[in-house]
Structure formats: C-alpha cells, structure tokens
Amino acid sequence: MPIPATPGAFAIVPCNDLAGAIPFWERLGFARTGGDANYIIMTGWSCEVHLTQAGDGPWRVPETNPFGVFIRTPDVDAIAARVDDLIIRPGGILRHREWGLYECGLAGPDGLLIRIGWPSRLIKAGAS
Q: From the CB of residue 59, how many other CB atoms can be counted at a distance below 10 Å?
C-alpha cells in the first residue's frame, strides 16, 4: 500500500521499541505504508501516524511520556471494538464528552495516550 496523497497534519511519535510498536498500530487498523528502519509511516482510517525511534529524554520512561495522538474518524465504534481491552477505565470509556466529542482513550506503547473520537453532533445525527 503506497503512502496516500492526502493533505493534513500528522503526529510523529517517538517509540522506545519501534519494532514493537508496529503490531499495536496494526491492531488499531493501521498498515505500514512507508518509511525505513528508524522511521515508519502507518496509515489507517483516513489518518496517518509516523513512528520514530526515541532518543534520550524524559519520555523514555513511560510514566512521564508527554505525547498523545488524537485520531478523528467517524469509525470510533469500530476501532474501540477492536481494542476494548486497551481502553483506559473508567475515564477513557467510549461516551459523549462535554467538549462535544464522542470518544474513548487508550493506553498505547510507552505510555502514549491515544484518543479516538468524532463530533457528537454528527454521531447523534446519524451522520457518522
């Protein structure tokens, strides 16, 4: 699968174990579409995330990882069903949030916070 020609802003996520992060993203429904041994491009759900080998820094300890990724997609329910065991409980459960998003939160590799959501008004309107 080639890298898609879509505009957007995409997260670059440092990983302590770059090779070990790939199966996690594949489980979310992403596929490797480019990169090399130290930089991997994953694409799925009309989104893209770039993974790179982490260097030195405080984020090398998962408990202090300041990074997060938000995946905005109408397929929130489908992704949440794939990874139900990774949903942060109780706070990250799939629900409509007061800030207007239908979303859930996951614990990713190295303590990475991953939130998946879509505007509540579109879910409620059946336009997901």
A: 20
pLDDT on residue 90? 82
Pairing of strands 113-119, 101-107: antiparallel
Structural domains counted in the chain:
1
CATH of the domain at 115: 3.10.180.10
Query: In the chain, what percentage of residues exceed pLDDT 70?
Result: 86
> What's the pTM value of the predicted model, to 2 decimals?
0.84
Low-confidence ranges of the chain (pLDDT < 70): 1-6, 57-62, 124-128
Which among 65, 54, 24 has a CA at the least distance from the CA of 42?
Answer: 24
For 38, the domain range is 11-55+65-124
Q: Assess if residue 6 is contained within a domain.
A: no
CA distance 97 to 18: 32
